[in-house]
Amino acid sequence: MYNYTCLNPIAGVGLDLLTADYNKVDALDEAQAVLVRSASMHELELPDGLDAVARAGAGVNNIPLDKCAEKGIVVFNTPGANANGVKELVFAGMLLAARDVVGGIEWCASEEGNADIAKLAEKQKKNYAGTELAGKKLGVIGLGAIGIKVANAARHFGMEVYGYDPYISVNAAWSLSRDVKHINDLNTIYSECDYITVHVPLMDATKKMINAEAIAMMKPTTVVLNFARDLLVDEEAMVAALAEGKIRKYVSDFPNPTTVGKNGCIVIPHLGASTEESEDNCAVMAVQEIRDYLENGNIKNSVNYPNCDMGVCQTASRVAFLHKNEHGTISQFTSVLGDAGVNIDNMSNKSKGDFAYTMMDVDAPIPAEVMAKMKDLPGVFKARVIK
Q1: Contact at 8 Å (CB) between 287 and 20?
Q2: CA proximity to 342, closest of 305, 285, 385, 302
Q3: Where do runs of H (alpha helix) occur along the chain?
Q4: Inter-residue contact 183 to 209 (CB < 8 Å)
Q5: Which residues on neighbouring strands pair with residue 2, listed in sequence order?
Q6: What is the pLDDT of residues 238-284, one digit of tens each?
């Protein structure tokens, strides 16, 4: 029996995938797994019995990743599950910036009851006219799950698309339209593109990457779109540039006092992944990740531990160890097992930065005292008997 808890409401289509072996609990200290969306976990006391956290979404800024790693807690996210929902809103943002649709709607509402509104509209519509997307240059910064969808879809709008991502994966590269121009110099996007949309994770290297210097390179007709994280943009510099007419529009999905109500800012109330389909997709993926880890020991889409997959155990027992990525750790494992007369049928060891994960299939159940001895080895955070 596995205990789990939800720190936020999780779509039922995902929770329905949990079998009778899963029991929902309210108390975090009773849970082996946590499902979370936006709730902050930074101030929570993480119990020793907690094995996994699954974020039903892509961003994990609300989760203390290193703290979890050092306690042997694997943190998962759901990359790509909400990508289509975000992609569609990015295009809504581009269209709202290109044409003053909102202003036109508000004008129509203000003329409620006016019998001559149709005639009056023909005179007023010039106040809300704009430009088309076709033929414009779009710069996509970050070619992950969302960035690729945006770049590919923009080609169907007739846009000329520049893509920037020095760390693009092989799978992503295969998925990218051949018509997208892969740019190696970010300054090219800043200086040449009419629309710039950012889709990178928030980290020290990307915080306020679109700053005053970047904005100064842009054309006064440029529109910047941010549906990733508000801190990727120096919003004080952005608001100042808008006020001075140095840039056309800033579209953000992250309301805050810096941008809300400011001239040239189109601020949306964090709707990027707020579709029924996105929430369902994220919930399904999060639950699948939790189940595969708890039941089989396999890790997929972890942000603090390496991916590792040995399928379903076909031997007598499977054990897993979460530990520091240090020289000699594996030899310590094999030495302890050898002394106990336990034969290893199959083994996988993967590392990610300072942390590593080792999974072993053995020909007989490992005695509890041997597991305890392995758990006490230097650098080992957690030892799990999976089968």
Answers
A1: no
A2: 385
A3: 12-15, 65-70, 83-98, 101-110, 117-124, 145-156, 170-175, 186-192, 212-217, 235-243, 276-296, 329-339, 368-375
A4: no
A5: 22
A6: 999 999 999 999 999 999 999 999 999 999 999 998 899 999 999 99
